[in-house]
From TrEMBL:
Name this protein carries in UniProt: MFS transporter
Alphabetical list of SUPFAM superfamilies matching this protein: MFS general substrate transporter
Organism: Niastella yeongjuensis
Family under the similarity heading: Belongs to the major facilitator superfamily. Nitrate/nitrite porter (TC 2.A.1.8) family.
Lineage: Bacteria, Pseudomonadati, Bacteroidota, Chitinophagia, Chitinophagales
GO terms of biological process kind: nitrate assimilation
Amino acid sequence: MNQPLDKLKIFSLSGIQMRTFHITWLMFFVCFFGWFGLAPLMPTIRADLGLTKAQIGNIIIASVSSTIVARLVIGRLCDTWGPRITAVRLLLVGSIPVFLVGLANDYTTFLLFRLAIGVIGASFVITQFHTSMMFAAKIKGTANAVTGGWGNLGGGVTNMVMPLIFAAIVGFGYTPHNAWRLAMIVPGIMMLIIAFLYYRFTKDTPAGNYKEIGRTGSAKTKTDWSILGDWRVWALALAYGMCFGMEITFDNVASLHFVDTFKLDQSSAGFWAGIFGFMNLFARALGGIVSDKVGNKYGMRGKGLLLGSVLMLEGLGLLVFAQAGTLVLAIASMLLFALFLKMANGATYGIVPFISDKNVGLVAGIVGAGGNLGGMAFGFLFKSESITYIEAFRYIGIIVIVISVVIFITRFRKREAKEELEPAVVAA
């Protein structure tokens, strides 16, 4: 069967479409271990390297800023090389700084390694691009949301598991100074395993790899730069900055926030930070599913209104979280804004595949880069010595609400959906 699937068979591994579906979300999941494996260990790393709040802020910014450029490049490479080879090469190159970050012994070298590791975050673009190639138009939003959500789930599992790996290494007699360094070898090995699986068991398209179907170097792979003049692309980039940008920011600061504000130990803080990530198990997929259903009934305009609504609810939830005075209220409000944040992630990529069927990778890359740009901008708030983490969360909540209004007035119309849906099926 060499056509895009029009049904998502979650529990199936038969057919290249579903094998690719499962391997590509697993790839993004594992990349999260490499990308954010250091985040839940930051209380230990902070003490080990003697880091200040400003330095930690710079590290947070570095961890997401390099991903901005990487996502733009990877989106274009998916259009040119195909997602399969792009994924394998990213995993192999990205594993190098993950393995070597343990060599860092001061702020500067740690910052540089964190910057290099951030390139791994571009794996998200591959996941969304590859999923779009494997599924028909009416199910793209749901399929993209599930692969993106299950991949993002790696952020939650990382926050929970890495402190346990660290504790196990300490239990074998190693000092904390050595334990956090040795712990990062685990995600490096995982990335190499996934690189093999990706190379061995996936194809670029249902019909075969780019070279097999003669796509490489064809007119189809030429970039239509006019897409940069489409305001919808930049609106989606802003929206993704507010949802995914906030997600990766929270992944970076959650453990430190729970340790400093509620006096939890590193393992407990990692657990609660992980609960935030675990919402991806269903919430991002829910956003994609609802986006598809709304789109089928109300077209692109309906998809846009849904995205604006969940962004506004995310912003309101963040304001409640910022005011939480107890751990119980903090956890409850965290779950509230996490639900709408992750639904917004799914709703954003429920729209992305229909902006330009000729340049799915470029659009996915620009919007994905927007997510990291948001994360980088938020990082400056957490870096400031004059702004507390609580105040930073409050300011972000207000900014998210403002951007939700921008999405409400962006002209996603049903007429556009009719024009885009048909060629999207062919291109996939």
